[in-house]
Amino acid sequence: MEHLNKENINKNQVETVEQFKVLSYLKSTFNFDEIELYLYDKTTIKLIDKNKVQAYFKYNKQSKKVEFYEKMHSKNELERRD
């Protein structure tokens, strides 16, 4: 898992188009002074807030939306929060 520093975030330095779409969503939603971001897989970015709460944001190619997952059971199986 690769940590995204402020420069990576400001320059949109990610590895895939899907990660770019997730990062764009996160940039419009969160205060980056209070979170840390990690590239989790090709379509997912892991977020950790100042209270050490973790969340996963994944780009869904079919719906073309960013989805939020509260927990992860394995890299292939994320638990979706409804």
* Tally of individual domains: 1
Query: What's the rounded overall pLDDT mean?
Result: 89
Q: Tell me the overall shape.
A: globular
Q: How do the SSEs run, as a string of H and E?
A: EHHEEEEE
Question: Based on DSSP secondary structure assignment, what is the total number of beta strands?
Answer: 6
The end-to-end distance, rounded to whole angstroms, is 26 Å
Strand order of the largest sheet: 1-2-3-4-5-6
Assembly category: single chain
Helix content: 10-25%
What does this 3D model show about the protein?
The chain has 2 helices and 6 strands, in the order E-H-H-E-E-E-E-E. 22% of the residues lie in helices and 45% in strands. It is globular. By secondary structure, the chain is of the alpha+beta class. The longest helix is centred in the first third of the chain and has 13 residues, at 17-29. It has one domain. Strands 1-2-3-4-5-6 form a 6-stranded antiparallel beta sheet.
Key descriptive features of the protein:
single chain; 82 residues; alpha+beta; 6-stranded antiparallel β-sheet; 2 helices; 45% strand; globular
Question: Strands, helices and their partners?
Answer:
Blueprint: E1 2-4, H1 6-10, H2 17-29, E2 35-41, E3 44-49, E4 54-60, E5 65-74, E6 77-80
Antiparallel strand pairs: 1-2, 2-3, 3-4, 4-5, 5-6
Short structural summary:
This protein is an alpha+beta fold and 82 residues long.
